[in-house]
Design goal:
Shape: globular
Order of helices and strands: HHHHHHHHHHHHHHHHHHHHHHH
Helix content: over 70%
Number of helices: 23
């Protein structure tokens, strides 16, 4: 390939790319304007925040996918596969477990209670202090995560177009805030539908062109296998290993359940459905779209490796960060197709718009429901205006939080660490309330705090003392086929050698200074931050509850899981009713037909007996 012989010759954005990219922004904003006029008669905050509970399953399902399949998925997952292998595809298995747990345990209770904020449940189940603490944790978690999500596509745009990095950050926040403030949840949901389609289209454009350039899917799979990227079945139970079958399956299930089972951005969509059936169906349809996007992003990572297996652009100093590899690939292989690079950047941008708008809408919802409505006497129309004002406020705060995101490491690991560290203890608190009737407010609050302290301890420790290479196991990257000049190649090798010597000497010095916990506790796989916080919160919460009289606790009905909520129980009841009905029908049929099979009691013989009796009388 000519462009690989000289990696510096990568094209830049053309006019058509800007047209495609701008068109995506205009359509997203237009959806917000449409719903602003279509719903100008809405008079209360409930219409604005939960769409009047009139949404159907399919758009809500695609919106559920878009909420957490952000630019981090578009840019970060392919790089994860490129550097560490395709084991991340096993998250598809954790998605199955997540959907089952969320639809059976959490969704029925939240929908039955008809709440606007997830954290209303915490006051019903525990007390007001627990509700406020949970709300504040959600706000902090969402602001940190959303800042990272805004920063990711801005980084991509800066790489491929030369647009000012912070100009892109600000424009992202402004567009999201615009349509979210105007149209409320319905605008967010339908914009998400459009943006999921854009994300899939962008992935497919990269995959199709990569397959054509490399000569077929089999070539890409062969290159990836030879490069050690098809490393799916690593069953090592060591919890210090970054990615194994068990860390992805177990850790992924906890992380995604905290994101889809109790997170306000997702629960807000469930309760917007017109019925519980639609709400459950939205989760199962969402599973299919999650699989589609995850499969596409992982295969894009394999395409990335196949194209650059002998000439890594990052080691060749053609990009300043590994998170810029995907936009670099797009401009490399699609430069002869005007508008297509713009489509991919629009896909990354779409992922960000959908996530940020969901976050802004969810932040406004919890603030109104948990921090304003209980303490201020405002009319429904005033609360509606407060919701819109808060959307603007949180949009501005999220833009500011993108500054912190620029200080974080790899996009994917940073995002999952944020979600898991705070989401894990919250998942433990909700699980404690839903599954254990003996859990009281003291146990819930102490469990939440203990789980949070534990997960923060290991997360911060892992940032200070990075896990050793034997735990992370990055795969080899090559530059021997970049066709540099002899001087450039010698300089690159010398620079790389010095960097490795410096890294090795630093590691040796750090190894002497590293405490015992650094190579054990702080080296725990980042995917286990969430399960650890969840389990600690549940165990400590149960112990404290039992010691503080939790067995005598009497709860209002509907606050814990009941067998009638479970789909399997409903199926069992239906089958049992049908079996009983069939049995009754069979008995009735036998009774109806009785006497016909025994000739001694047939109708004809009875008639003859009557005739003979009549003749005897006469």
């Amino acid at each position: 390939m000519e462009n690989l012989e000289n990696p510096a010759n990568v094209a830049s954005f053309t006019a058509w790319d800007y047209v495609v990219f701008t068109l995506m922004l205009v359509i997203s904003a237009a959806i917000g304007v449409y719903y602003a006029f279509a719903q100008r008669g809405q008079r209360n905050s409930r219409d604005f925040l939960v769409g009047g509970r009139s949404m159907t399953a399919v758009p809500v399902a695609l919106s559920l996918t878009a909420s957490f399949m952000s630019a981090i998925t578009v840019l970060g997952t392919p790089v994860e596969v490129y550097c560490y292998g395709a084991s991340f595809i096993l998250t598809c298995l954790s998605f199955i477990l997540m959907v089952g747990i969320s639809s059976e345990l959490f969704l029925p209770i939240f929908y039955r209670l008809g709440i606007t904020s997830t954290y209303e449940y915490l006051e019903m189940r525990f007390n007001k202090a627990t509700r406020l603490f949970g709300t504040m944790l959600f706000i902090i978690q969402t602001l940190l995560y959303t800042g990272l999500v805004i920063y990711a596509p801005a980084l991509a745009l800066n790489q491929v177009t030369g647009i000012d990095l912070w100009g892109a950050v600000i424009s992202t926040g402004v567009v999201c805030t615009f349509y979210c403030t105007l149209g409320g949840l319905k605008a967010v949901v339908w914009t998400d539908v459009f943006q999921v389609l854009i994300m899939l289209t962008g992935f497919l454009a990269v995959i199709i062109q990569s397959v054509l350039v490399q000569g077929g899917v089999s070539v890409i799979i062969s290159d990836s296998t030879q490069g050690g990227r098809i490393n799916l079945w690593d069953f090592d139970p060591n919890p210090l290993r970054r990615h194994t079958f068990w860390t992805i399956l177990i850790g992924g299930t906890f992380i995604w359940t905290s994101a889809y089972g109790i997170n306000q951005a997702q629960v807000q969509r469930y309760v917007s459905c017109r019925s519980l059936l639609h709400a459950k169906m939205s989760l199962y349809v969402n599973l299919l779209s999650l699989w589609a996007i995850n499969l596409c992003s992982v295969f894009c990572g394999l395409c990335l490796y196949s194209v650059y297996k002998n000439c890594d652009p990052w080691m060749a100093k053609k990009v300043s960060s590994q998170d810029q590899l995907m936009p670099y690939l797009v401009l490399d292989i699609l430069r002869d197709y005007p508008g297509v690079p713009g489509l991919f950047v629009a896909a990354a941008y779409s992922g960000t718009l959908s996530t940020v708008s969901s976050s802004v809408n969810a932040l406004a919802a919890v603030t109104v429901a948990d921090l304003i409505r209980p303490y201020f006497s405002l009319s429904e129309q005033q609360l509606s205006w407060a919701s819109k004002g808060l959307s603007v406020f949180y949009g501005a705060v999220c833009i500011g939080m993108a500054g912190l995101a620029s200080l974080m490491g790899g996009l994917l690991q940073a995002a999952i660490s944020i979600v898991g560290t705070i989401g894990g203890p919250l998942l433990g608190l909700f699980t404690l309330g839903i599954l254990f009737p003996c859990a009281n407010s003291k146990g819930g609050l102490v469990g939440l705090v203990t789980g949070l302290v534990t997960s923060l301890w290991v997360c911060i420790g892992s940032q200070i003392y990075h896990p050793p290479p034997e735990s992370t196991r990055p795969l080899a990257l090559e530059t021997h086929d970049c066709n540099f000049s002899m001087a450039e190649n010698a300089l690159l090798n010398l620079t790389y050698s010095k960097q490795m010597d410096h890294i090795n000497s630093d590691q040796q010095e750090q190894a002497l200074d590293r405490p015992f916990l650094a190579d054990n506790w702080y080296s725990l796989s980042y995917l286990y931050f969430c399960p650890m916080g969840t389990i600690v919160a549940i165990v400590v919460g149960l112990i404290v509850s039992l010691l503080s009289g939790g067995r005598r606790l009497k709860l209002e009905p509907g606050l814990t899981v009941i067998k009638e909520d479970l789909t399997f129980y409903k199926i069992y009841k239906i089958l049992k009713q049908r079996a009983s009905a069939d049995k009754l029908d069979l008995v009735g049929e036998k009774e109806k037909k009785s006497g016909e099979t025994n000739l001694a009691f047939c109708d004809v013989e009875l008639d003859i007996t009557k005739i003979q009796a009549h003749r005897a009388i006469t």
